[in-house]
Amino acid sequence: MIKNYLKITFRNIMRNKLFAAINILGLSVSLACCLLLFLYTSEQLSYDEHHGKRLVRMTSHLTQKSGESLNLGSSSMPIAPVIESEIPEIKNSIRILIPTLFGSKDLISYEDEAFYIDGGVVTEPDFFEVLKYKFIRGSAEQTFPHNNAVVLDREIAERIFGRDNPMGKMIKLNSLTGSQDYEVTGVFDNDSYPSHLKPTYVISRENALWQPFVRQFDASWVGNNLVYTYLELDERADIGTVEGKIHEIFIKNGGAEMKELGFSKEMHLQPIEDVHTSTGLEADSLQGKSLVFIQVLMTIGVLILILACVNYINLATAQAGNRAMEVGVRKVMGVTSKGLIIQFLGESFIIVFISLLFSILFAEMALPFFNYLVGDQIILSAENMWVIGKYLLMFLLVTGLLAGLYPAFYLASFKPAQVLKGKNKDKGVAALLRKGLVIFQFVISIALISSIIVISQQVDFIKSKDLGFDKNLKMVIPLSTDEAAASYAVLKQKFAKNSMIDNVTGAHTIPGSHILSDILAYKKGQTMDDALRIIRNPVEHDYFQLFDIQLLAGAYFDGPEKDTLVSKVIINKTAADRFGYTPEEAIGEILYFDFGTMNFQYRIVGVVYDIHQLSLHDEIYPMMFQLSDGKSTQNMVLDVNSGNYQQLLSSLESDWKQILPNTPFEYFTLEDHLDKQYASDKNTFDLIKYFAAISVIISCLGLYALSMFFAERRFKEIGVRKALGAEVKDILIMVSGDLSKLILIAFILSIPISIYGMDRWLETFAYRITPGVGTYLLAGCISIFIGWLTISYQSLRAARTNPVNVLKDE
């Protein structure tokens, strides 16, 4: 029986080579896309599972009395040890401090080699008991035998020591708190498990250099949210109950501080497996993937697979007339409807199985390009063979049933008496379904084309938007070590003499980077209850001139700070507006900030136009520029006037080495730094662009096959019409008219879907375009043109048919 079914299937494939090729090609490409997308999304959603289900991260939700809120992935220093001691459901807790969160890099030195790294962590000694990593050397239980121990990631250890055993060797680490020697006591592998936290090194917060830095924040329960707090819960613990107990303890210890600062704060517990996709939190240096981005990819994969299944259903039902006689004869010979359903479903599964084999080849060929698009490394190997096999089996079952179920029941329903008399007609449910599926295909394709147009318009808007400062020909040199920061004045003087540089300035934080320093300031006659959150960035006095940030009122900084009691500041227009001042009224006013028993005062000397410190996803917030004290300059910015970067870099590095011979020279351009803010948007755009093209091609393959089938069925009618005098244009309109109407209906239906989807995406931008009707009309015109081009060949072929050739048998 099975052998007979296989023979029939392969005979049908050989008899209808073009239709079979279209089906197999469409399914193969779709399954390859689905395989890559599902492997990627499953990996992204499997992050941190190895740490265990009872591990959570504590997040902070701050709310001012004005209603402004702030969600942070971090929390304050003293909370963890207190709640661990008072809440029995908490088995263990660790706090993690990441030096690069403060804008610095770490310099690792060994013998004559030195290089910068970022991503190291300062934490509790039992870090590796709470978070699980695979150890290459040493063990998780004996990582910190003393406070000057360091545990290195495998890649860093190999870069420093090559193939030598690093255990017990001494390295020098110059970090946020200064330079110190550390003994290597372990090596772990960051890449052994998918984890949101991939430290390059781990050291203990009990280290002598770090103790004073850490302990200065031990008294603040509300402010200074600088650490990432992880809690290991008991098996029976309920997260909601634990959150309630944490809140009670927090109110008892931090309630008075909240009242002083004029805002409220709540802690929430986030399951460890959700951290990687929680990209909406501020003060979070952990680079995850947007859950929306992952969901978009999964949706695209499913839609592409559905489009290929639609092709199969359309072609199978369209060819029903060709197989009607076969069905009639087999039923007369005693084959039941159940037997026919099994046969046709078997054919579907065989075609899907063949497509699966091709899909693996296509996926392997496309893998390098796909990895480039998503910015990650997905592999097809024995390591993930179980996952690949699971998806292939799922694709076989789902696609085989989805594509084959309706055609099987439809073909098996033919009545022998009718089909053997040639009375079976392609009318009713099958014809309507086929038209509906063609419309569905092009609704999806047109919606994706609309997405491409809208996203490209938003990208152009981003590129052309005035950011409020001059970003062109700006080179940034990070001052990542304390020695480099202390040498700022000497370096500035040296670089300023270079004829290829027009100006040099410095800042704690450059445009395109998050500013962690903020205060709650209020104006005269108010209290902390009325305070406004304002971001504070220490800059050099010539910062505004170099970036060409225009004054609205007042003056730029004119030199070093002289009044130690009242600091001079320049605010942006948004800050002036929020305080209720016009730019002119703000000049000379004093802003106040209370912290405990201390009162800080800031005199406004200037108001500047708003600048986009962050991407266009974020609204412009109130900013305060404070004159740097010379110790907060972490970035040196050079205004370059030459396109000869090689000569300039050679000159700058030579000057750098004269002053800092043991510190590596690094640089980046401001434009490259700003572009990184839109890396995720670029990935989304590229993925939608390429998968939209694939969906259109798959839809057009089906449309081409259908147009050929319809044209062949009407050859005799066309011959009669031409014999009666019909012209080519009349035949062309007749043949292509029905399918063109379907594409037009799809265009109309796609408009609300496209508008809704793009509005949701554009809502992630605080500054965005507003797509007009022309955008969606253009997408529709493109789709109609592509669709008409697809069916035009068969339509022209039919219109040019010689009546003699098709009517000679009549």
From TrEMBL:
Major localization class: membrane
Domain MacB-like periplasmic core: 21-248, 443-611
InterPro entries found in the cross-reference section: ABC3_permease_C (IPR003838), MacB_PCD (IPR025857), Macrolide_Exporter_MacB (IPR050250)
Keyword Cell membrane among record annotations: yes
Domain ABC3 transporter permease C-terminal positions: 299-414, 691-803
Membrane topology: Multi-pass membrane protein
Keywords: Cell membrane, Membrane, Transmembrane, Transmembrane helix
Localization: Cell membrane
Membrane-spanning ranges: 20-40, 292-313, 340-363, 391-412, 432-455, 690-711, 731-753, 773-791
Name this protein carries in UniProt: ABC transporter permease
Organism: Fulvivirga kasyanovii
High-level lineage: Bacteria, Pseudomonadati, Bacteroidota, Cytophagia, Cytophagales
